[in-house]
Specification:
Structural class: mainly alpha
Number of domains: 2
Helix content: 55-70%
Number of helices: 15
Radius of gyration: 24 Å
Strand content: under 5%
Order of helices and strands: HHHHHHHHHHHHHHH
Shape: elongated
Amino acid sequence: MTKKPFLTINQQLDLLKNRGLIIDGDSKHILETEGYYSVVNGYKAPFLDMDESKRHNEDRYKQGTSFNDVYLLFLMDRSLRELTFHYTTKVEAMLKTTCSYCFAEAHQEPNAYLKDENFSTEEQYLEFGLKTYIDDKQKLQSLLYDKKNNSSREPIIHYRNKYNEVPIWILATDLTFGNIEHLYNLMQPNDRKAVCKMVSSITSGDKKHQYIDPINMRKWINTIVKVRNMCAHDERLYCAHIGNRKNINFAGFLLHISHLLTEKDYEDMIDAIVDLVESFSGRSNIISHILDNMGLIPAE
């Protein structure tokens, strides 16, 4: 396979013009600051003339498409990632607190998170719908051991030096959302139930508490962690499909996160998404493409 040659910014602009894209005065600056791959390769799909592209064996854009059209979609998705990231971090903070609290309440001996007996058995792990128990458990405990003994975060250093042990609620300050997901999955069944009960109490407020099934919680956390990481790494979000079967779109993510936010936070999130879509719809003619990919157009 022949590798693609290096192209200067001006050559990139010429290439886009030759493929039918209208270039304006800001296009060069955008390519210089954002990059060709991120903007063009990431967001060109809905603007391509597929018949002409096949005929020429290279990209060809629909007549009248401008570079700014592609860039607007790029900006819209960036804004979607930013507001989505904000709400996933709320869930992350809550789960760090609830998982560490429930684990510490159930296992109060020093450094309890380093002891095998304080986690689920392999049979319980399999019943929870997960595999690779030994490997997953070893990775988690190795991580927790390393954080306890080598973390450079000030609270952990303080507890390590003053008390010669680090409580899990302090250790959790240096864990990622993915680490917390693995901690929850490996907790004993009763500890997972305690997490679910606590989360239900937090999210329900003064209303009657919803029952949260621990397996559903596992699935929701997995979805939210994946979306959170996509936001953090500037991956395309509006048209993403995640999950083992790639069957969860943005609408599916919203359903999952709705269970782990307060009613007000969820309403604020939806309002922000609606405002974003409305502000974009007046500036682009591909809003139906966007809503369809997000799963927000009802099936007929």
